Protein 1
Amino acid sequence: MHTPPLFADLLIILLVSVPVAFACLQLRLPLLVGLMLTGILIGPYALGLIKDLEAIEILSEIGVMLLLFTIGLEFSLRRLREMKRLVLIGGGLQVALTVAATAIVAVIFGRPLNQAVFFGFLVALSSTAIVLKSYAERNETDAPHGRAGVGILLFQDISIVLMMLMVPVLGGRDAANVGAIVFKLGGSLLALAGIVLAAWFFVPIILTQIGKLRSPEVLILTVVLLFLGISFVTSQFGLSLALGAFIAGMVLSESDYNHQVTADILPFRDVFNSIFFVSIGLLLSVGALLENLSTVLLWVVFLTVGKALIVWSVIQLLGVPQRVAATTALGLAQIGEFSFVLAKAGKSVNLLPDTDYQTFLAASIISMIATPLMISAAPGFGDFAQKIFRDKRDDPALMDESEDIHLTSSGGLNNHVIIVGYGLNGRNLARVLRAVLVPYTILDLNAETVRQAKEKGEKINYGDATRREVLHHAHIADASALVLAMSDPQSARRTVRQAREMNEKIYIVVRTRYISEITELLELGADEVIPEEFETSIEIFSRVLQKYGVARQVIEGQIEEIRRQGYEMLRSPSLAQLKIPNLNAALHAAATETIKLSADSPVIGKNLGELNLRGQTGATLIAVVRRGETKVNPGANYKLLEDDILILLGTSEKIERAEQLLQPGASVGGFNA
């Protein structure tokens, strides 16, 4: 029987990828590097094991689409609106300055202007797939440098439309149709807005109807249809398939099905992504690289350093601290996968000679292979840059009092709480502290957020908590607590270490997304680490125990035991047994419970003597709360009314019997409103 070439190629890719990936992980190298090296090894310019390159390219494009789709699922239209400054101003300046700088250098070296501008197009784009994949693996997508990088990458993906339309013009084929080019670009942008609005309106309606069928198979088929359909529609208007996939994910993120969709799509995404990264390595000609090694390395240095400096400058212009700007710059200092598409189009109209094409491919692939390593080194580089290039954004001592986003609201505070991050957790904490009259001050790195909060009278400052000067300005020496409510694990570690050195007695609480980060944060000096996924697990098991009638005191004891052990139960591969001599005895121990009488309770209007609650159930009524007033040990003539809250004492079985008497059909475990 004939075996299709694609089947054999996929088998070879997996057969070689697994051992190479294993070796890379053993050597502590990023997995993406291993996959790209796999492509070089089995590609047509090395061992020549892959035959059907076109089919592999199609599968790799699906991988990029799936990656952008899952990234979109973590976004929302609201979040995109919050990033409009990064997308429009940051992305626009980065693309324009990179094209201009590259064109000037190319003209100096004797290239014609049209070719020089085309080179600028190639250099302006970064690798969306590699950067977002690396940020996701490092949990840095929501970090300040992650948001900045995502914003610039989104603008780059949109700018591809103009670049593709300009290729024939630069090649001299459609020089008289510049007006038509502008018209097509405007049509593409209008189409983009129309697609987003239509998807935002119709997709929830479709998913609601599909959800009524209660069929996971139909749901995932519908999601795949929407994902491919929106991508296809965007491609018909000159936009990339990947951008359409991102829009589909972003729209689905607003639905109630986003978590289920993410779980169903992830396995496919990882497989197709792996094929994409292998396909990048397939393009590299080892022979051409060795023949022009010095030239290729010069290109790599020029591309990496030049692009990083431009991104760094642009992010700085947006008022972002040096550390974040430098970290973002190093992450985007490579050539993107869509540049390969542009390169092929330019080659067809003689904008890119064959020798330049091979040199460009080699330099681009080397820069992409180095990207995961550069992203790993970026936080350290950011710290170094911040120490060398200090400015008023990094040091409050250099701030101008006329800049209201930098004005301190922590002056004169003592025994206060410092909140780092003004997201949902930071806002809730600030509201509670304000309500109970506990002094506090807030630090955040989003200038717009700081300005808006200040206008509302919030006690907030613009500042990077990883800086000693910023913490000193927030009076950390006099503070009683520091709460890190930000989504940047690297910055959280540095801030904890810094804060503990500056105030040995301060109480440090850190919010983190993952349990795996608990140990390191505690070792660095945190007093409490609250991982989101752990708190979700507590909520789940507490509700399950309530359903089975376990007394509230026992449930709270279990929660306290887990927290007291520093989450060791959930971090250890072999769970230690709780130190309770007799679990059954603990479950039957005396406990208190509260029951709220609803309108249909059969005991309303009866007095306690008639009810004889203890005689019938064994539970003791120790107090009644009525309209906010508590009556302790009410007498036999005390009459029960609707909305009374009864406080009972007894074992879980006795309390359950009492509840069935007071509220037939209800379940034990809390107010029965």
Protein 2
Amino acid sequence: MGIKAERSSSYTAAEIDVLEGLEPVRQRPAMYIGGTGKAGYHHLLWEVVDNSIDEVINKHATRVDVTLHADGKSVTVEDNGRGIPVDINPKHKKSGVELVFTVLHAGGKFDRGKNYAVSGGLHGVGASVVNALASDLVVQVKRGGHRFEQRYSRGVPQNKLKDMGGARGTGTTVTFTPDEHIFGPKLCFDPAVIAERLEAKSYLHSGLVITLRDETASPPVVQTFEHAAGIAEYLPKVIADRGKAVVPPGAQVFFLAKEGEVGVELALQWTEATDELVKSYVNSVPTPMGGTHDQGLKAGVVKAMRNYIATHKLEPKGVSLLAEDIREGMVAILSVYHRDPQFQGQTKDRLNNPEVTAQVDAIVRPALEGFLNQNPSWANAVVGRVTLAARAREASRAAASAVTRKTAVSHRLNLPGKLADCASTDPAESELFIVEGDSAGGSAKQGRDRKTQAILPLRGKVLNAEQANSAKLLANKELQDIVSALGCGMGDGVELSKLRYGKIFLMMDADADGHHIATLLLTFFFRHMRPLIDAGHVYLAQPPLYRIDFGKQTFWALDDLHKQRILDGYTGNAKPNITRFKGLGEMNPETLKMTTLDPRTRQALRVTVPEAEREATDVVITELMGKDVGARFRLITENAHEIDELDV
């Protein structure tokens, strides 16, 4: 019997909807701001701020003032630029202000070079999108000795543009409140997020003064951001926030140059970090997903370093230098200006202009090579840093190659002696449980499914990977056992195709020590085996802390809060009998199997780091696990109010 599609004769042209004006924005806000969560909520503010910054880029403004009002949901952005045109557009019979705020793809940035030589706004939708998604918006313009005002609600003008009388100076002021119908009632602006973004803007434009007045604080707090040296001041701050020493101490690479349509400002330094960080911007708009300008920077850096090494005959013996070795530990601030940037989407997270790669490369390579030749002591120290990275990578690759994926002949060679391996050679069904302590390992070995589940016990707390260099990591027995068992290498040498287990569970006691060990392991995975997290291979096992029996009914509680919820939710007459497990080793194998090992009954949390949260995650790990005790102390004291009970 076939499937028959019934045709409907009622579908006519009259049923085709056409969304007019700003309706498309309210119907599909994610198309314009990326989503209706916290990031989208703040994106409205970035659109308004970027319009003011475009006036700064083109030398028409020197000041931007942002006020977060006491409700935390309304905000004002004011600049001293030229002010949006207020005269009537002859074609559309509306004022310039009303066109900008009510019509998609309306603005003064399409005719490149006439009104704006370069700008972050391209599509003429930023102001109108903010207006469409705001329950209330008021724009004031000072221009020609007068002040004009117009109010909107959800994109609809509530009055004509009014002349409010005389006024000194020029500029635009926008006050708006995001619409709770779109974003929900709980979201509000985060002063810390706003301050971070505004401070970055001030670094990108020397001579610009940005103020942030936070009226959610009592009394209100005013911060002023002004950095005459621009990104040359920004780079040391970024490096300090990461908590990694620079290599070598002292000078940084800094230059400003132009190639065709592209202007490049770059600040660059190497550090002891095991990863690279490039904070890139196009026309002052941050591009967290990088793009062709990032690619040009990386290509130029690698070529310049290779040329310097070859010219001065500094090639290391016994090891070849790869591009990732050269860039390891590199921290760069890249600010690019382009007349016609082609971004990926309205949120502008990535630059797509294909010609920019070669243009940035052509600027960076000779400039960096010249700097290296003029500063040989500095350059030689960086070459030494690069060589160490290459040797660490080769050592990691050698360790990984010693443990290939299991075969019928050699699947047990070179594996850690403590590893109780599984019989299966299929990574898709194989699981590795990294367990705290030999006693817990014993229970886990008895309770596991020997065909698909492997157990690797650890002794005590592992090395803190955030404070250890590559040599210490390679010498640490516990971490090397993990790397050997997984078989995929570490650092830049991670090869997921050689991963021996599709799921890796961190199975620690449900107490403070167990949480600490899990944090240490997560730090190691995040810093040195991040592809495993990105691919969804890492999990946190959820062993219970309590067993609660009501007569013949048994419940398992993960922590004290979960225990209380179970007790509060029980409606029977039986009295509870509560057992607290001091550790995994106290559980008999059957209990451990049922609660933590068996895929049919266990609970587990997959470890993920969303793209938008990577930089914040990096900062938190640095503060929690790094050498800077002050940063950790501040983090603890600032969040102490959220801790009801501390298990020590």
